[in-house]
Amino acid sequence: MKPFKAAIFDLDGVIVDTAKFHFLAWHRLAAELGFEFTEKDNERQKGVSRMESLEVLLEVGGLLDLSSEKKEELATKKNEWYKEYLYKMTPAEILPGAKDFLKYLRLRGIRIALASASKNAPIILEKLNITDLFDAIVDGNSVSKAKPNPEVFLKAAEQLGIAPSDCFVFEDAQAGVEGAKRAGMRVVGIGEPTVLNQAEIVVRGFPDIEPVILLSHIN
Ligand code: B16
Ligand code: MG
């Protein structure tokens, strides 16, 4: 396989498990609206934007004809609850092996970017104390088209000044893997091989990434 020059990381589910906080906040919103929202329903929210996540929730609750003002109000309310969890986060919540792997790549001259759908990405990186490990940050504040659209990955590569074909993406969501492939990048899937079957390599987490395998893809 061709060597790579840049590594582009998703945030939620790859560097930190914020999905559990998203779920708690969405679950609370559903309860307030009078219906049950399960972890299975929550799977469909992973990797997609806040407003698309709200659409998933409203579909489950059969509430499809709300005004856009009401939808904004509900998404904002959920986000306020979600941020209460984020403010309590500490660097201990970085997923096992993620920080060491970022440092490992940096030491070898690999450029590093974040490509996340989250508008809260800057707060999360700050709470984890890892902002400085990224050469570029592209998040929900700077893209208009959500994954599986390739926009977030292409912007990340552009900001790094590296061609898409020289990038490796680390993703946990099917929509993210699809977006990265559409961007012309190679993908390491983090999670279930059956779900992430479009990825070149799938591992359970960073401790399972054999540096030698990846190193053979680096210049
Ligand atoms: P926010 P990622 C995504 O993060 C989450 O996986 C997804 O569940 C969430 O709806 C989205 O961020 C937007 O998050 O409400 O904070 O803007 O996986 O792309 O890092
Ligand atoms: Mg993710």
Order of SSEs, N→C?
Answer: EHHHHHEHEHEHEEH
The SS-based structural class is: alpha/beta
CATH topology of the largest domain: Rossmann fold
Strand content: 5-15%
Quaternary assembly? single chain
Rg calc: 17 Å
Structure at a glance:
The record marks 116, 147 as: Important for catalytic activity and assists the phosphoryl transfer reaction to Asp8 by balancing charge and orienting the reacting groups. 42% of the residues lie in helices and 11% in strands. By secondary structure, the chain is of the alpha/beta class.
General description of the model:
This protein is α/β, with parallel strands linked by helices and about 220 residues long. It has 2 domains: about 5-15 and about 95-215, 3-Layer(aba) Sandwich (Rossmann fold), CATH 3.40.50.1000; about 20-85, DNA polymerase, domain 1 (Orthogonal Bundle), CATH 1.10.150.240. The protein contains 9 helices and 6 strands, in the order βαααααβαβαβαββα. It has helices spanning about 20-35, 40-45, 50-60, 70-85, 100-105, 120-130, 150-160, 175-180, 210-215; strands at about 5-10, 110-115, 135-140, 165-170, 185-190, 200-205. Strands 3-2-1-4-5-6 form a 6-stranded parallel beta sheet. Strand 2 (about 110-115), helix 6 and strand 3 form a beta-alpha-beta unit. Helix 1 (about 20-35) crosses helix 4. The protein starts with 5 loop residues before the first strand and ends with a helix. The model has no long low-confidence stretch (mean pLDDT about 95). Bound molecules: 1,6-di-O-phosphono-beta-D-glucopyranose (B16) and magnesium ion. 1,6-di-O-phosphono-beta-D-glucopyranose binds near residues 50, 79 and 140. Its cofactor is Mg(2+). InterPro entries: B-phosphoglucomutase_hydrolase, Beta-PGM, HAD-like_sf, HAD-SF_hydro_IA, HAD_sf, PGP-like_dom2.
